[in-house]
Amino acid sequence: MLKGNSMKKYQFRLDFQVRDYECDLQGVVNNAVYQNYLEHCRHEFIRALGLDFAELTARGLDLVVIKAELEYKRSLRSGDLFWVGLILERISPLRYRFRQDIYLLPDDQLVLKAWITGTGVNAKGRPQLPQEIVEALEKMG
Predict the structure, then answer these.
(1) With 63 labelled, which of 30, 86, 94, 131 sits at a CA distance of 20 to 30 A?
(2) Count of domains forming the chain
(3) What is the rounded radius of gyration, in angstroms, for the C-alpha atoms of the chain?
C-alpha cells in the first residue's frame, strides 16, 4: 500500500482511534500507549498471515520482542483517527524486525517511527523461529 510520495510501501495497515483513557494529564496519548498500538498491529498482521499465537505457545514456541526503538514526532489526542503501517524483514537467521510508522488522519502526518526486533523462543528458552515465521519471512523477501 503506497500513500503519498514520502511514505513506504507497507505490508499491512491497521486503523485506530484514540480513546480518552489512553491520554495523560497533558491531554495527549501517554508515551507507553504507543507500544500497545504497535503490538496490536503486529498481532493482527501475524493473524492475517494465518498464524495463531495460542497454537504456537501450545507447541512451546513464543514470539518475543528483544528490542524496541521509538522515535516520537508529534502527539495524538483523544478522538484522533490514525493508522499504523508495518513492514516485516528478516535481519538474521533468528531475528526479524518490524518497521512500524503511525500516521495521523486525515492528512497522514507522521506521528511515530518504530523499529521492533523480535525472535522466537522454544520451551527450553533457546532462540528458535517457528517454521511458519521462517516461511512468511522468505515470502516477503
Answers:
(1) 30
(2) 1
(3) 16
Candidate list 20, 24, 62, 108, residue with the active-site label? 24
Q: How many CB atoms within 10 Å of residue 83?
A: 20
User: How far, in Å, CA of 57 to CA of 122, rounded?
Assistant: 9
Give which of 76, 107, 95 is closest to 137, Cα–Cα: 95
Asked, for residue 7, whether it belongs to a domain, the answer is no
What burial class does residue 1 get, using C-beta atoms within 10 Å of its C-beta: 0-12 exposed, 13-18 middle, 19+ buried?
exposed
| pTM as predicted | 0.90
- Model pLDDT for residues 62-106, shown as the tens digit of each residue: 999 999 999 999 999 999 999 999 999 999 999 999 999 999 999
**What is Dmax (Cα atoms) for the chain?**
47
Q: Which domain holds residue 90?
A: 12-139
Q: Could you report the per-residue pLDDT of 76-88, keeping only the tens digit for each?
A: 999 999 999 999 9
C-alpha to C-alpha distance for 49 and 18, rounded to whole angstroms: 26
Is residue 1 included in any domain, yes or no? no
**DSSP 3-state assignment of 107?**
coil
